[in-house]
Amino acid sequence: MTTLDNNELIQALRNGDETVFQQLYDQYSAAVFRNIFRLLPRQQDAEDLLQSVFLKLWESRHRLAEEQTVDGWLFSTSFYLTMNRLRAIARDRLKDMGELPADIPDITETETVSETYMQKMTLLHKAVNLLPARKKQAFELCKMEGKSYQEAAVLLGVSEDTVKDYVKSAMGLLRRQALQTDLLVYALLTLYSANATS
Fold first, then answer.
1. Who is most buried in 1, 53, 62, 128, counting CB within 10 A?
2. d(Cα 28, Cα 142) in Å, to the nearest integer?
3. Is 122 exposed, middle or buried (0-12, 13-18, 19+ CB in 10 A)?
4. What's the rounded Cα separation, in Å, for the pair 149 and 160?
5. What's the pLDDT tens digit per position in 173-184?
6. For residues 194 and 41, what is the distance between their CA atoms, to the nearest angstrom?
7. How far apart are CA 67 and CA 72, in angstroms?
8. CA distances from 65 to 9, 69, 117, 124, 179 (A)
9. Where do the H-state alpha helices sit in 98-148?
10. pTM over 0.70
């Protein structure tokens, strides 16, 4: 890929340079996908959102500000779209579960995305840190580090069934707390729960 500085990239996009756009996709799509998948651990949804991010980049190319980096725009937009997808999922899950309806605010494009991200992750990590030690370890290994139940069992020196029990119990505790404090974190946890670890 020809090395262009940020201003040159933005100018090329404004000029409709499809070659530069494809080069940006090739360079950043894998990293953007990983960031989406960490929040939304469902393959098809994450792939759909990845395509939406780059479509939005192309559609918004004439409005890109030169003081904004292209990679920063990609990661900020991917977070914004993912959080709003989580909002929709949370609303549907709460309705299906018969929970009391609650309004979950959209993440607006004027809101500082990095601050929102830190708020959500801080809430999640605080809740995880309140778990009993073994349940905390099991949850972190299986749901945050992507290890299988079998791998976690070896690391913890317990049976695979014990690890499953730890994770199930941890998920229940975390969901109850998140339901009372932050429904976007609750949505994230329900997705963790649905994303079974083999």
1. 53
2. 27
3. exposed
4. 6
5. 877 776 666 665
6. 9
7. 11
8. 11, 8, 22, 33, 38
9. 113-129, 133-139
10. no
